[in-house]
Structures are given as structure tokens and as C-alpha cells.
């Protein structure tokens, strides 16, 4: 009987001693942890981003040119570059960013719940999303629009000649609604063939099951490379919807909103001023005061954002300007072969127009 | 008598009486060897021309055979041609997608070429196996998988000694080891709280021992085993937590960076390992005579069987974060894992309940007559028989679960299929055969895993049914 009692008391004593010493050394850690917990719930996104040491960015699960992982698993694309720019602005290091691949259904929840800090997932800026979902769009990094691709053999030069066409598209997206609106408003008949996945749509279109393939024009460019004879197909001139795509943040945190908005604007302004990743460092002492203001050698613009004054210099030297990002990921020398089109600077005939830094 | 007969035969002068055994002739060609097999199984059914009806039937069977043979071989040839004969195997000039382009697209392959583009798979191999797991840390995944394979093989091969101990290690230490290896351990658990809970656990064990000796009155004495178990649960749980909190100097790797086959295996293995014991408990609970236990288990099973897995995953990944306070997240993979585990446990419970119901009442009564307790009855008499009966059903559930893991890709977790689909989105490799090649490769991987499970289950069935045949 005493045997069990001795073991019991012995265990109690040993446990007590172990626990006491283990606990004593770590009381501080416990306190710090509690403080962090409280902070996370109450303070600004910038502070929580700084305390965890990286920007958590929501991207797509794979969209060519916008956000997809390359052979080594590294994320690339113009949406990804926005995230890297924000990381460069906040930390001075564009690699301090982690990516969360999100489906279209998950994206707004992930942002609203704080799982991600920025959503940069080719999200169309619409009024409902801006007003109803507790989100703010920080700008537009790509002006897209729904287009139509047809085989050249069809002989159609305009969407107005497509009366009675079979149209392939994805299910459950706005593209389906847009094309319906377009055909109905023009009094034309059509037959919709909808598929779940982009690959199925391409396969069906390539096999000749439909005359028209409709989706965003950037998507058409990407899917075109998967056709058996890409040169036998042409994209019609009509653009039947406006799809301004841009980064999104949570509503109610103006400081973070400004950081994301101005990170994107810095990239666009830099292209306008001719600042590239190659010459950013040498332009710091340029004579042009606008360049000086952007690169932080004049004024106090970074500090007003809650960042250091070389915030834009870090973006430009590590990520590059908007034009560089465009050329690398979606431009004419990439598989997507997308011309700048409306995504050209306002000074060159496009509609990209960033407010000045002053 | 026999002697007499023998001599009579020997001496008879009749020429038609054989004096020795006839030589053994080979069986007719229609009965033995390859020709015999072919005749019996294939040609016999189309060689009967004795009447008009029989001739018609034979002709139809012959025509159908030819058609099916042609169809089968054409399919197999197409697949082999796509995957092997016409496929592009190497990309020496690093052309990427241009290596798999036909002349129509601006490449070098003949027009109309349609076959697998394997260089695409080589380039994406790391991604579809490990996802974005950092390349220099891959040894951790490889080590975990290697240990798993060795351990599993040891447990599955029956001649080896101490299988039971190795199996216990595989179910306890191995998951913990994998967890530390894969995530890097070093959880932010304060040692103070672990220490405190350890003390409480040890105190409860001591309490249990005191109760057993009767120092704490008769009421608590009744419950000494329960108190002791609770104490041990505390101690073990906190020992695990403590191990998770130790800094082994491994770089922490977020589960967001996991992907590919790694995720598929983590989800499937966790689901399989957890669903069997949980399913047994639920099945026993549903057949229990205690109303509360029966009700809880029935409601649980019917609830999880009543919702599709997709809904469960969506709830876990889309709805759950909205209910939690802002900034409080728990891991997306963990959420999906819990969903998959509970879901498969409900299915497993119903399979096992089928086995339990197949056991004759006499077995229960016999066990009772021998004075066995409920748990002894179950452990020694009922479950071994019930589980043997439902091996095909259990393995069916495992295989179903393994394939269902692909559903996690819709909640943004890159499992094997999700990683493959993400790789298809890479425009640097976009060709008409890009998607087909990837899906073929993924199908092969899934087939290998599922086929192995299926074969092992057949082996187990044969072995166990032999042990019943005597």
C-alpha cells in the first residue's frame, strides 16, 4: 500500500519541481504573448504586419501573368508584384511577403477575417463590392474587359455578325451574364455552352463545339496559347464589359489603405518619370523635384504614410515600375502577348493616371 | 482370389483382352494448355453452328469479340501512344513550351501531333510533389515519408518480430515526429503553462492513487481509474505539447507552403488513421444500450453523413473565420483536416456497424456466459470477427477518402490535383497538351496508391478467410 502512496507523492514532488523551474524562466514569454494577442485585435494593420514581419497577401490559385507559381514554386505576376511592392514599402525588403492562394469564393472572407492583409487577385472593382462587403479598392493595376475570340474561318469581323452563334464560357461568372446582356440588347440569338473549368472551355472551343469563346481579354490571351492552331483564331474588337482589376484592403484602416494605394501609384508615377529598377538608385539626386519627392530625397512623404522616406525607392529598386512589371509578366514578349492598350500611361494614350506625390 | 484372377487373365488366350494398361494419351487439344484455355473461354462460344439459331448466336458473339478486341486495343494503343511512343521526353535546349509546339504553333513537331509533354512534368515535379515547400528543406519531407514507408512495411509484413510495438510507435511517436519535421516544431507554447498542466496532471494521478487506497472515501474510490486516466491524459497531452514547443533549430514552415502529394498524403493518412478508431467507437456507441451514448453517436453520424464533404470544407474555410474574432485564425489545413476526419469517421462507423450486426447473437451470449465484461467481449470476441467481415468496406472507405482529398483544392489548399491545376496555369508551358499531360500523370499517381491499398486488402481477406476455413 505504501508503495503506491510513495510513487504518487514522488510524482507530485518531481512534477512540481520540474513545473516550477520550467515555469519560472518563461513568465516573460507568457506576458509578451498576451500583449501580442491583444494588439492583434485592436491595432492597425500596419502594426500587426510589422510585428509578424511579413505581408500576407491573397492571390489566385493560378492565373497566367497575374499570379501563378513558376517552376520553382515562386509566385510571379503583376498582382504578385503589387504585394511585393507593399512589402518593399513597409519593410524595405520585397521578399517579406507570404502568399495565400484563394478561390474566388474564399477571397473576401479571407480578407474580412484578417487571414490576409491585402487581396491582390484580379478582383473587379464594382460598386456592390466596394459598398456592401466592408472592403476598399486601393486602385487599379489592370483595366480588363470581356472580349470574344472566334476562328478566322468563321469570317466574322465584328461581334454584331455573331447572330445564332454557339458561345463557350465558364459557368457562374459575370462573363456569362455579360454575354447574355450583350446579345439580348442587340437582339441577337445565341446558344450558351458553359463549362466549369477554363481548360474544358478551351478544349471544347478547340474541338469546334462552339463558334465563340468569351472571357476577359487577358484570359483570352492566356488560353489562346493552348489552342492547336493559335493563328487561326482572332479576338474581336468589341469589349463588352469594364473590368477594372485592383488590390483590395479591409475598410476602416485608412493608413493601410493609403500604403497599398500609394505603393501602386508610386509604381505608375515612376514609369511616367522614367525611373526603373536599374536607375532608381542613381536617380535619387536627380534635378527633377518630382523625382526627388518620389524617391525620398526631398520632403517627408514616407513618414506621412507611417513608413520610412525611402519607401518608394525600395519598391522601384526591388520590384520595378509598373511598365517593367507589365512587360515581364503580361507584355508582348511573354506568352500572353498583351499590348498595353488602355493600360498605357495617360501621357501615351492610355488611361493609367496616378495622382502626383507632393 | 486376386492371384487366381490375375493368373487367369495372363493365361487367357483371347486376343481382345488387354494384358497391360493402355498408354496415357495427352488430353485433347480443346481441353488443356493454351489452346484448351482459349477454346473453352473464347472460341467454344462461337463455334456452335448446329442450328440456325446457334449459328446466329455464334456469329454475333464472334462479331462482338472482334469489335471489343479492336476497341480495347485501340484505346490501349492510343493511351500508350499519347504517353510513351509519341511523347516528348526531353527538353535539352530549355525551350519550355516551344519544345511541345507543333509547326502550327511555331514549334518543331509535326502538325496534328498530340501526345504527352513530359518536360513540363519534370519542370513542375517538385511543385506537384511538395508544393512551395522550400527546396533546401525537402529532406525533412523525404525523411518523414521514408520513415513512414519503412514503418508501414514493417507492420504490414507478418513474419517480423515486435510488429505490435512498431505499430504502436507508428501511431504515437511517428505522427509527432512528422509534425515536428514538417512544420519545424518550436510552437509558441509557453513552457510555464506546460509545466503547470504537468503538475496538475501528476497531482490528479496522485489523487487517483490515493483514491484507490481508499483514503478519500468510498465514492471517489469507485472512480479511481477514471481519475488516474484523466491525470495520464493531462500528462501525455502536455508532454506532446512540450515536445512541440522545443526548438530543434528547424526552420519553421507554414502549412501554406505545403502542397502537392505531401498534402494529399497528410490529409489521407490522418483521415485514415483517425477515422478507424473513431468509427469503431461511434459504431459501438450507436449500438450501445445507453440512450445518451446512442443518441449522441446517432446524431453525430447522421449529421456528418447528411452533409456533402464540399459543404464541410467550405464551412471550415469560409464560414468559420467569420465567427472567430479578427486576427484569430487557425490553420487552414488543420480546419480541412478536422473536417475530413469527422466526415470519414461517420462513414467508417456505418461500415463497422454493418460488421457488428452480422455477428450472431450467440457470440454475445457466449461471451456473457463466460463472464466477460462489455469491453472484453468487444475486444476479444466481437470486433475481431466484425472487422474481418467488413475489410472490403473499410478499405473501400479508405480509398474513397484518399480520392476525396482532392476536394480540399477548392478551399485553396494545393493538394496533388490542386497543385497540378495550378501548374497548368503557368503560361510558360502552355500548349494544347499541357492539361492532358498533367491529368494523366496525376491519374497514374492516384492509381498506384489506390491499387496498392486494394491489393493489400485482398491479401488480408484471403489470409483471414483461410484462418476461418478449418
CATH superfamily of the largest domain in chain A: Periplasmic binding protein-like II
Mind telling me the CATH class of the largest domain in chain A? Alpha Beta
| Binned strand content of chain B | under 5%
Largest sheet, strands/sense/barrel of chain A: 6 strands, mixed
The total tally of domains of chain A equals 2
Instruction: Provide the structure class of chain B.
Output: mainly alpha
> How far do the termini of chain B sit from each other?
42 Å
Individual helix count of chain B = 18
Strand content of chain A: 15-25%
Estimate percent helicity of chain A. 40-55%
Outline type of chain A: globular
User: Number of DSSP strands of chain B?
Assistant: 0
Mean pLDDT of chain A: 85
| Low-pLDDT runs of chain B | none
Give the SSE order of chain B as H and E letters.
Answer: HHHHHHHHHHHHHHHHHH
Structural overview:
The complex is a heterodimer of chains A (358) and B (470). Chain A has 14 helices and 13 strands. Chain A is of the alpha/beta class. Chain A has 2 domains: 45-143 and 243-348, Periplasmic binding protein-like II (D-Maltodextrin-Binding Protein, domain 2); 146-235, D-Maltodextrin-Binding Protein, domain 2, CATH 3.40.190.10. In chain A, α7 (174-185) links the parallel β9 (165-170) and β10 (190-195). In chain A, α4 crosses α13 (311-318) and α10 (254-273) packs across α13. Chain A is globular and about 60 Å long. Chain B is mostly helical. Among the domains of chain B are: 187-246; 259-322 and 338-470, MetI-like fold (Orthogonal Bundle). Chain B is 69% helix and 0% strand. Chain B has 18 helices and no strands. Chain B is extended, with a radius of gyration of 32 Å. Classes of the chains: A alpha/beta (358), B mainly alpha (470). At the A-B interface, α1, α2, β2, β4 and α5 of A face α4, α7, α12 and α17 of B.
Amino acid at each position: 500500500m505504501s508503495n503506491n502512496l510513495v510513487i504518487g507523492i514522488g510524482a507530485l514532488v518531481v512534477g512540481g519541481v520540474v513545473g516550477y523551474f520550467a515555469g519560472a524562466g518563461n513568465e516573460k514569454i507568457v506576458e509578451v504573448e498576451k500583449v501580442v494577442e491583444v494588439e492583434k485585435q485592436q491595432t492597425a494593420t500596419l502594426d500587426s504586419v510589422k510585428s509578424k514581419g511579413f505581408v500576407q497577401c491573397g492571390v489566385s490559385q493560378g492565373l497566367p501573368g497575374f499570379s501563378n507559381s513558376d517552376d520553382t514554386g515562386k509566385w510571379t505576376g503583376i498582382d504578385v508584384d503589387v504585394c511585393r511592392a507593399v512589402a518593399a514599402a513597409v519593410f524595405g525588403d520585397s521578399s517579406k511577403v507570404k502568399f495565400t492562394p484563394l478561390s474566388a469564393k474564399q477571397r473576401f472572407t479571407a480578407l474580412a477575417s484578417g487571414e490576409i492583409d491585402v487581396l491582390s487577385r484580379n478582383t473587379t472593382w464594382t460598386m456592390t463590392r466596394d459598398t456592401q462587403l466592408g472592403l476598399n479598392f486601393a486602385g487599379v493595376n489592370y483595366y480588363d474587359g470581356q472580349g470574344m475570340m472566334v476562328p478566322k474561318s468563321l469570317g466574322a469581323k465584328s461581334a454584331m455578325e455573331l447572330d445564332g452563334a454557339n458561345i463557350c464560357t465558364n459557368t457562374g461568372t459575370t462573363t456569362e451574364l455579360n454575354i447574355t446582356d450583350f446579345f439580348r440588347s442587340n437582339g441577337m440569338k445565341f446558344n450558351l455552352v458553359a463549362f466549369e473549368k477554363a481548360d474544358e472551355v478551351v478544349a471544347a472551343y478547340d474541338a469546334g463545339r462552339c463558334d465563340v469563346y468569351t472571357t476577359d481579354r487577358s484570359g483570352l490571351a492566356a488560353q489562346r496559347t493552348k489552342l492547336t492552331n493559335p493563328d487561326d483564331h482572332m479576338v474581336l474588337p468589341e469589349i463588352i464589359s469594364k473590368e477594372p482589376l485592383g488590390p483590395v484592403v479591409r475598410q476602416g484602416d485608412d493608413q493601410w489603405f493609403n500604403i497599398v494605394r500609394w505603393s501602386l501609384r508610386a509604381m505608375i508615377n515612376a514609369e511616367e518619370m522614367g525611373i526603373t529598377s536599374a536607375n532608381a538608385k542613381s536617380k535619387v539626386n536627380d534635378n527633377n523635384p518630382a523625382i526627388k519627392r518620389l524617391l525620398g530625397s526631398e520632403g517627408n512623404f514616407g513618414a506621412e504614410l507611417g513608413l520610412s522616406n525611402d519607401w518608394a525607392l525600395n519598391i522601384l529598386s526591388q520590384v520595378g515600375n509598373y511598365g517593367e512589371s507589365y512587360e515581364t509578366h503580361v507584355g508582348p514578349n511573354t506568352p500572353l502577348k498583351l499590348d498595353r492598350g488602355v493600360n498605357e500611361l495617360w501621357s501615351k494614350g492610355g488611361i493609367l493616371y496616378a495622382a502626383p506625390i507632393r | 482370389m486376386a492371384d487366381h484372377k490375375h493368373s487367369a487373365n495372363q493365361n487367357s488366350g483371347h486376343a481382345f483382352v488387354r494384358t497391360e494398361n493402355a498408354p496415357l494419351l495427352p488430353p485433347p487439344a480443346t481441353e488443356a494448355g493454351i489452346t484448351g484455355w482459349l477454346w473453352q473461354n473464347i472460341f467454344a462460344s462461337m463455334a456452335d453452328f448446329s442450328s440456325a439459331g446457334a449459328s446466329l448466336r455464334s456469329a454475333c458473339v464472334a462479331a462482338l469479340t472482334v469489335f471489343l478486341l479492336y476497341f480495347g486495343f485501340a484505346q490501349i494503343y492510343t493511351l500508350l501512344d499519347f504517353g510513351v511512343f509519341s511523347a516528348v521526353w526531353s527538353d535539352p535546349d530549355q525551350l519550355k513550351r516551344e519544345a511541345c509546339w507543333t509547326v502550327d504553333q511555331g514549334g518543331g513537331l509535326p502538325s496534328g501531333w498530340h501526345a504527352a509533354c513530359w518536360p513540363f512534368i519534370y519542370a513542375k515535379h517538385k511543385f506537384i510533389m511538395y508544393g512551395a515547400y522550400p527546396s533546401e528543406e525537402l529532406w525533412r519531407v523525404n525523411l518523414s515519408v521514408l520513415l513512414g514507408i519503412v514503418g508501414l512495411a514493417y507492420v504490414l509484413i507478418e513474419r517480423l518480430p515486435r510488429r505490435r510495438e512498431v505499430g504502436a510507435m507508428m501511431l504515437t511517436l511517428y505522427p509527432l515526429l512528422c509534425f515536428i519535421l514538417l512544420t519545424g516544431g518550436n510552437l509558441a507554447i509557453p513552457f510555464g503553462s506546460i509545466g503547470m498542466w504537468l503538475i496538475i496532471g501528476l497531482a490528479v494521478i496522485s489523487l487517483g492513487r490515493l483514491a484507490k487506497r481508499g483514503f478519500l472515501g468510498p465514492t471517489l474510490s469507485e472512480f479511481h481509474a477514471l481519475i488516474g486516466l484523466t491525470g495520464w491524459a493531462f500528462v501525455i497531452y502536455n508532454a506532446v505539447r512540450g515536445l512541440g514547443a522545443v526548438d530543434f533549430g528547424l526552420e519553421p514552415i507554414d502549412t501554406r507552403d505545403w502542397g502537392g502529394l505531401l498534402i494529399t498524403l497528410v490529409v489521407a493518412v490522418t483521415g485514415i488513421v483517425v477515422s478507424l478508431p473513431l468509427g469503431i467507437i461511434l459504431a459501438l456507441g450507436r449500438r450501445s444500450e445507453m440512450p445518451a451514448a446512442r443518441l449522441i453517436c446517432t446524431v453525430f453520424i447522421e449529421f456528418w453523413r447528411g452533409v456533402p464533404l464540399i459543404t464541410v470544407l467550405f464551412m471550415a474555410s469560409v464560414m468559420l473565420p467569420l465567427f472567430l474574432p479578427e486576427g484569430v485564425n487557425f490553420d487552414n489545413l488543420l480546419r480541412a483536416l478536422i473536417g475530413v476526419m469527422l466526415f470519414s469517421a461517420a462513414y467508417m462507423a456505418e461500415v463497422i456497424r454493418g460488421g457488428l450486426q452480422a455477428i450472431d447473437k450467440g457470440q454475445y451470449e457466449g461471451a456473457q456466459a463466460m463472464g466477460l465484461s462489455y469491453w472484453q467481449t468487444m475486444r476479444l470476441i466481437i470486433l475481431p470477427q466484425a472487422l474481418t467481415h467488413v475489410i472490403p468496406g473499410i478499405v473501400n472507405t479508405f480509398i474513397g477518402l484518399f480520392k476525396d482529398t482532392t476536394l480540399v483544392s477548392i478551399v485553396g489548399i494545393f493538394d496533388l490535383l490542386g497543385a497540378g491545376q495550378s501548374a497548368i496555369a503557368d503560361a510558360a508551358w502552355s500548349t494544347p497538351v499541357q492539361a492532358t499531360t498533367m491529368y494523366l500523370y496525376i491519374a497514374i499517381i492516384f492509381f498506384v496508391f489506390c491499387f496498392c491499398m486494394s491489393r493489400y486488402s485482398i491479401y488480408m481477406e484471403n489470409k483471414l478467410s483461410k484462418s476461418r476455413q478449418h
